[in-house]
Every structure is written in C-alpha cells, then in structure tokens.
Amino acid sequence: MPPPHSHIRELVTAYLGRHPDERPALEPLLKTLDVPGEVTSRATLAGHITCSAAVIDHDGRVLHVRHNASGGKWLLPGGDVGPGDATLMAAAVREVHQKTGILPAALCQSAAFCHEPADIDVHPAKGEPFDKHYDFRFVFHLVRPSAETNVQAEEVSGTDWLPMGQVTSLTMRSKLLGADISAAPEPVNASVTPDMLDRLPQSPGLGDLIRRHAAQHPPATTRPAAYHRLPADATPPAGTELHVVGVHLFLQDADGRVLLGLRHPDSAYAGRLWHSLAGHCEREDAVSSLIREADEEAGLLLDREAIDLVHLVHSQDSPTASPRIQLFFRARSWSGVPQVREPDRCLEWRWFNPKDLPDNTVPYTQQAIEAILAGRPYSDMGWT
After folding, report:
1. Is this model's pTM higher than 0.70 or not?
2. Which of 210, 212, 204 minimizes the C-alpha distance to 97?
C-alpha cells in the first residue's frame, strides 16, 4: 500500500511549522489530501508527489546525478513513489539505491531533519496530466566517509559530489546552508560495522536501515560505553543459563490470515513444517533483528514504529539444549509481497486462517498464534 494521506499531511504540517511562509504554495496539496484519491499516482490531476534525497558525505558534499530525461541536468536522486513504499522517506531511500546503487544500510538520518523533509519543492508539471509536482526532499548522511556509486543507466548517466554551496536546487541549498548539520549522525544500526557493509545483500531493506524514531531519540553527544563482555575464558555466574533469543513475525493480511512458510526438508530446523518468519538475534536489538530477517527471508519491509511485541514463548527442546526466548512481534504495516529469498530454508509462503492452521505447524508457533488471538502475552513449552 502507498503512504496514506494522514502520513503525508503529518509531514506537510511539520514542515509548515518550520516554514510557515510556504503555506500558500502547499495549500493546494493540503486540499487534495482532504478528498479521496491517490496523490502519489500520476492519475491525480491536482498534483503529483515525488521524493528525492540529499546524501551528504563526510566532507559535507552532496550527491547529484546527471538526469537523462532532463537533458543532462545535475539533480538530486529521486523519483515517483512506488506502490510498495510505506512512507515518503522509504521512497526517497529506494530511489537513492535504484539511481546510484548506494545501499540503504550505508545511510543514516540527519539529526537536523530526522524523518521530516528538509524541503518541499513545488514546480509546474510540464507536459504532464496534472498541475504541479510536490517534491519531498529528505537528508541522509553516509555512515562511511564515502560510497561507490553504480548508476541506473536508463535514467542516470553519471554522479558527482558537489559542495553544499553548489547544490543545484536553490531551495534545497538554502535549507541545507541554514540548518545545523554539524551534529554527528547516528548509524542506523549499531550492529552494522564498516566491514559488514561490504557483505550486505544488494536489496533495499528500509526498516532496519533508517531510524524514523530519531526525532524522539536524537544522537547522543558522547560515545556510548563499550560492551561489557566476559573474558573469553570466563564462565557465567553459578546457576546462569545462557538463552538463545529468537524473533518471529506475526503478520496478518486484510482478511486476518497469518503468514507461514514451509521449511525446506533439508533445513537444519523444522524440515517440512510450517513456521512463522523467524530468525536468531545477532548482536542487535530484537526489533532490528526482526526487520532484517523479514527483508532477508521474504523481501518484506517493516515499519519500526508499527511493530508491537505480542507474545513470548519460553521454551526448551530437551534438558540438555539451550533454553530459548521466542519473541513474537506483530507488524501493523509493511510493504512488499512475500517472496522466497532463501530457498534452501523455505519453499513457499502462504496465508492461513489462524484458527485452521496446518497439522504440520511448528508446535510452539501454533501455541503462540493461539495465545496471541486469546490476548495472552506469555506461554512456555518443554519445561515439564
């Protein structure tokens, strides 16, 4: 589903709070948002929304692309909002990736603008069936000092990093020069290190990669303390049992059906059984782990701000196996269609009536789904 009107209105309202003098130019868009229709569609006659981004490197330079359709003008990377973009920021990140090849994981938000647009440019739509373009422009920083680009040849014929004072858009240039962007941006995922960036899959997984809640949690002014780890030869305190933490996606479609995947017969776990989309936590928070797994396993992009913990199963498979904390999260919004992206682990994805699950469903998954429907936050399995 494309971004709802409420999301777009929220961004426009926040933007006008910073730039009230631009209300006359944006008033037609606000009126369009009051009536049914899809303002991100080219079929909308009153106006058309696009998204672009200013990507800033560690030298303060801004990425531009040579845009073929404009006759070779140097512009910020951007384009139309796609049907799978849950937010306008998601569209901007996707466009950066598609136009320049820069991975979403290589980007982080600007502390000055967070998830809000730095500029909303309004200009006539020449030769189009609508009156105006409303281009929502977001700001990102590179996590690493620089990034290699690989352009989308059909639309872009080159890239260049221009000093901030030479940004080709006058309105965006003034917004950038007038903002305090000196605050060090926070990497979008503390578990992503520079060497890991080189190994990330070439796919745009937004949710884990752009922290939309940075507005409520600005970057710290001091570096966090290093992890306190036990020495390699140390043992945990007496009686301590180390637990494996698993994350699971409880996803329902418009008809209330839940998504399950059929595990490959040769899978290390639950071969030939139906299981929720799941994975193990690495050195990352549980929500980031879930977002990563959803993208890696099924190509689904989850909205971090629309994820709720709905159940916990405390389980053990045998008295000698490591106990497990199985966390089940409900995603209230997402984008994408389930795809088999790890065929060695999952053969297919299918939607099921939660009250009529297959007989060969993983037992604790079935137990968790039944508990979620009943509103119970906790259950356990295998302890007696």
Report:
1. no
2. 204
